[in-house]
Write a structure and sequence with these properties.
alpha/beta, TIM Barrel, two-stranded antiparallel sheet, 7 helices, EC 5.3.1.24
Amino acid sequence: MAAVRSKICGITRVEDALVAAEAGADAIGLVFYPQSPRAVTLQQAQAIVSALPPFVTTVGLFVNASRCDIGEILDVLPLDLLQFHGDETPADCDGHRRPYIKALRVRPGEDVAARCLEYRNASGILLDTYVPGVPGGTGEAFDWSLVPRVLPKPVILAGGLTVRNVRSAIAQVAPYAVDVSGGVEVGKGVKDAEKIRAFIREVQSA
């Protein structure tokens, strides 16, 4: 099996981004959703992005943001990838001059494969836990058996992942990548360096 990639999301501090990069994270996520406790300002994001070494993908997370708001950020911030975590249609996700991944919240009875096909221009599909009224960051895992073994897009698995369960999650789902936020924190938006290192060690050894 190919190596599973890792993304540390909800980064709000330069020091946390540098720990993630040093530990071997493939990507870091910056949340541009004001209602999130992990939201960053443009100034915070600029400081984080400029401090990162090469070959760490920077991902901007948006929830039902306007095309204008996204464009204003992209005009000044060199994000590599966009992550749409709300109710965005395929048309909403296209046309931002960046590749994107679309987050889908998984619940029983949902045809995950069909949903993936709707977003034919997506670089990948992120599968997260469905909690009514909450777009993400719940810290809760979902039933991984709901994920089909074959999907038309690379799968990024999220939702309640920690150092204790990520190896099992990888074994069951065989995702392209895993995405963690709350599972490596000491508080909302404040990461724990050792938890980041331990999480990535588990991913790399899975």
